[in-house]
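SEVERITY: medium
COMPONENT: batch folding queue
REPORTER: lab tech (J.R.)

DESCRIPTION
The queue accepted two submissions in a row. Attaching both inputs and their returned structure tokens so the on-call engineer can compare them side by side.

ATTACHMENT 1
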Amino acid sequence: MPDSTAKVVKLPRRTALRQTTLTETIYTEIRARLRRGEVGPDDRILDYEIADEFDCTRMPVRQALLRLVNEGYLIGTTRGFVMPTLTSDDVHEIFEVRRLLEPAAAASATASLDRQLDEALKRAYQQARKACDKTDNEAMIEANIAFRDAWLGAVQNTRLQDTIQRFADHAQQVRLGTLRDQATQKIVVDGMKELLDGFLERNPKKVNTAMTAFITHAEQRYFALLSGQD
């Protein structure tokens, strides 16, 4: 006779697993587009268009977009999702947070850098130099992101990593407004060189000083260009 006490083993809910994975994929892709400047302040992200692109229903797209809203990357409107418009006070506050967090975090990263990350930093710096020489705005933006991702990958505190990444990404309006300016690109490349030297020397004090100057210069350039002083 069959054992009536045998336990029923439930199989995993594979559909839910696929849904979660798809939502994460869509979230990562849209966030990457925002970071690269492929979505402008006047663009609208429509859930049905993203669903068509990924050949899926609108549900995982909505979940990904709402996550980006919760993290401050987008805001929802009656006509889709758009990037938030930053006021001058917003920009000042973002840079204040970055000055409090990034110099110390970058300095701490010097203890955890390895040869692979050193090479990633060097490649990003060289890419930035070439982009500046050719006035290649898109390549400059990509190099800036790659450089930050490299040193941030050596920060041991994952919550600190995430916080810094988010506030840096929120300054996308600043990045788009400054990194397309040739004079600013030169300042950025010079700042990267100071940081790179400090990282390669494993000199946390030098990195702290260079990162503070890097962030301060970025803020100053943004408001100078905004006011038409340059």
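ATTACHMENT 2
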Amino acid sequence: MKKIALITILILLITLALVIVINLYPKEINLNAQGVKYRLGIEHKKTEKLVNVNIEGKLYKSISGKRRFTGTIDIEGEEIPVPVDQRKLNIIFTNDGWGVMSYHIFEFKENGGVAGTDIYQYGSIFINNDFNKVSILVSDQNQLNGNGGTAWGAENGQMITVPASSRLEAISVSNELMEQFLKGYKLE
């Protein structure tokens, strides 16, 4: 009887260890899809543009369920004022799938030391659990919030949503991804 109990406990421990390893092992992310860049608001319905989005990196999950992405996000036609060798993102996601796309920029002295640092915030990003649906809220670099940073507004904010082939489809995906964050509000 003791032998059966010991074998059962051993099987349960091995199963638990496998589940933990499978869930905590970083997931490779390679999303190369067509999306739509558009501006919210009824008056901006004609502003949609098809774009290709390429996301490469790894998605890490902690024991507590927190997710973190490290890698690159390239959007066709987007000019990002960050040196190419410094475009690796480290995004920590909240429980509702929201994260901040911030690039940390380092300026180096000729002797190799750091001359200065800066942060370029491209916007916010929402993902689903599988990281195969993405919606990016693009910060308006010409509009400042009260803290001196860039702003985004739900009435007329610019967005990029993947996968999507039309503005209507993109807004539907965005509303799905942002449901908890928007708390009943629907994007139009």
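NOTES FROM REPORTER
The chain has one domain: 26-182.
No errors were logged for either attachment.
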